[in-house]
Amino acid sequence: MTEARETAVYTHGHHESVLRSHTWRTAGNSAAYLLGALRPDMRILDIGCGPGTITADLAALVPDGHVTGLDREPAILERARAVAGERGLTNVGFSAGDVHALDFPDDTFCVVHAHQVLQHVGDPVRALREMRRVTVPGGLVAVRDSDYAAMTWYPPSPGMDRWLDLYRRVARANGGEPDAGRRLKSWALAAGFTDVTAGSDTWTFSTARERAWWSGLWADRTVASAYAGRAVEGGHTDREELREVAAAWREWGAREDGWFSVLHGEILCRKEA
Q: How far is it, in rounded angstroms, from Cα 83 to Cα 182?
């Protein structure tokens, strides 16, 4: 049998403009749907942990348990270890790995969590099967992903329309699914889960500070991140269009009436006892 491995290319990379977003994430603003199910002694696997801010929050919430943060990029784990160290957390560890072939025994974790991961992987159903495998009977798999086609904003902006169309094309060319949020429940059922609670939540950016932050990181990401390089190298656009799209983001961010909403699909899947 062919060994499972990641086939998709991570669209964003780890440019500063990407980490600006990832380090803003907390358990409160990115995993609220899971928090009520946590107990102090749980063992948690946080897949796609990135710089570790959510991982550290989860570790603080299970002081008698343990959290393992996993990412396929070893370099970003140094950042995650630093975050945990700064918070004085001793019940957290980090390792590199592939969600399609997790290097853990069956029935290891009480909770397996993944935030904004399945939109970037080549085989989300296989990934969910692996997450299910390493979860203890009666435990939970918790997944949250944004849905790009469902993102909406005001006022209308032809430049941002171009951004959304371009991003979705590039993400799919890289092997991912940018509209993952709406597909999570179907993927979970295909992976063999029978107890699936599906919901949704949003991030909203509307105040002057929120607009400046959100528009600034996307403008920078559009011209300077790995996404920009992949968009050009893949023949999807050119540098001039990317500059125009970045300018549209900044124009939107300067609008007093600007509003942007990011829809996320969320699933809590309980493994049969």
A: 32
C-alpha count within 13 angstroms, C-beta hemisphere, residue 267: 30
Apex 41 CA angle, 29 and 86, nearest 5 = 55
The per-residue pLDDT for range 68-113, each reduced to its tens digit, is 999 999 999 999 999 999 999 999 999 999 999 999 999 999 999 9
What is the enclosing helix (H) or strand (E) of 190? helix 184-190
CA 66: distance to chain centroid?
21
Count of all residues that appear for the chain in the document:
273
State the DSSP string of 117-151: -GGG-S-HHHHHHHHHHTEEEEEEEEEEEE-GGG-
pLDDT in tens, 205-245: 999 999 999 999 999 999 998 899 999 999 999 999 999 99
Start-to-end CA distance of the chain, whole Å, equals: 29
